[in-house]
Amino acid sequence: MKIAFIGLGTMGAPMARRLLEAGHDVTVHNRTRVREEPLAAAGASRADSPAAAAQGAEVVFTMVGDSPDVREVILGPDGVVHGLGEGAIVVDHSTIAPSVAIEVANEVRARGGWCIDAPVSGGSEGAERGTLSIMMGGDASAIERVRPLLEVLGSTLTRVGDSGSGQLAKAVNQVVIAGTYAAVAEGLTLAMASGIDVEATLTAISGGAAGSWGLVNRGPNMITGHYPLGFRTRLHYKDLGIALDAAAQHEVPLPLASWVAQQELALLRRGFGDEDVSNIARLAREAAGIDALPVAEASEED
């Protein structure tokens, strides 16, 4: 199948590579053009713009940072819609505001195509392994048409409703992650401070009711105090903002998610926004006196 993939960051690049390795004809584009080079070396074509990438593509995948980026990449002057063919499908894996997902879907539909909001969860590991959870909003028949492609990328594929619904499901996902990571950080900090074998404790509780993806995959980060990138703290903070906006719209209080957002903002302001989101453990460890929070270069985030 002829595919375009736009957005080759931590998640997008391995996803595009999986589609290429599955035998599809893949054209790539990224704002920072050098990121196209490894995929081009593996056999992908390169395009100078999202519109050029979309020309002739049956399916266009996008994976960019935020709502304004999606608007620009899909609807902008050089956006996907200017190259999209009749009946082609756009699959947006970005995490954006549900209202923007609906807006983009309506614009694409008005031009004869389909747009599915399909945010993902599972971190960079899931993108590499093809085990992502993909939550989808949009036309059911369009989703079925792209399902064979999505099966290359994910192991859990779920339509949750019409356009915008995928983004609402992702907001729920990020709220749960926020609480999970905060709880894992506090629990493992207690284990470290008490002097018991913390690695053995991690093994023990991972097999019980406390077991979770975050505990198993990010607990080791919190024990060592090193936070190699899986999903950036600044992006999770952005996602929590989307969730909190949705919660306000529906009059749902989210006190835990609000508290975690403030903790992440503190990390961003101290220069740790590009670390993995498990770095919320920095603050728990500092509060317990296990280690001092090092001073990094100040972030531009505020």
Task: Outline the structure in words.
The protein has 302 residues and is α/β, with parallel strands linked by helices. It folds into 2 domains: 2-162, Rossmann fold (3-Layer(aba) Sandwich), CATH 3.40.50; 168-287, N-(1-d-carboxylethyl)-l-norvaline Dehydrogenase, domain 2, CATH 1.10.1040.10. Helix content is 51%, strand content 13%. The chain has 13 helices and 9 strands. The protein has a 6-stranded parallel sheet, sandwiched between helices. A 3-stranded mixed sheet has the order 7-8-9. Strand 2, helix 2 (37-41) and strand 3 (45-46) form a beta-alpha-beta unit. Helix 8 crosses helix 11 (233-249), helix 8 packs across helix 12 and helix 11 runs antiparallel to helix 12 (255-269).
Q: What is the global morphology?
A: globular
Number of helices: 13
Total domain modules? 2
The chain-level mean pLDDT equals 96
**End-to-end Cα distance:** 43 Å
Task: Please give the order of strands in the largest beta sheet.
Answer: 3-2-1-4-5-6
Structural class of the helices, strands and pairings? alpha/beta
- Sheet having the most strands: 6 strands, parallel
Low-confidence stretches are 298-302
CATH top level of the largest domain is: Alpha Beta
- Strand percentage, roughly? 5-15%
Order of SSEs? EHEHEHEHEHEEHEHEHHHHHH
Please compute the radius of gyration using only Cα atoms. 20 Å
CATH topology of the largest domain: Rossmann fold
In helices, the fraction of residues equals 40-55%
Annotated CATH architecture of the largest domain: 3-Layer(aba) Sandwich
| CATH homologous superfamily identity of the largest domain | NAD(P)-binding Rossmann-like Domain
Number of strands: 9
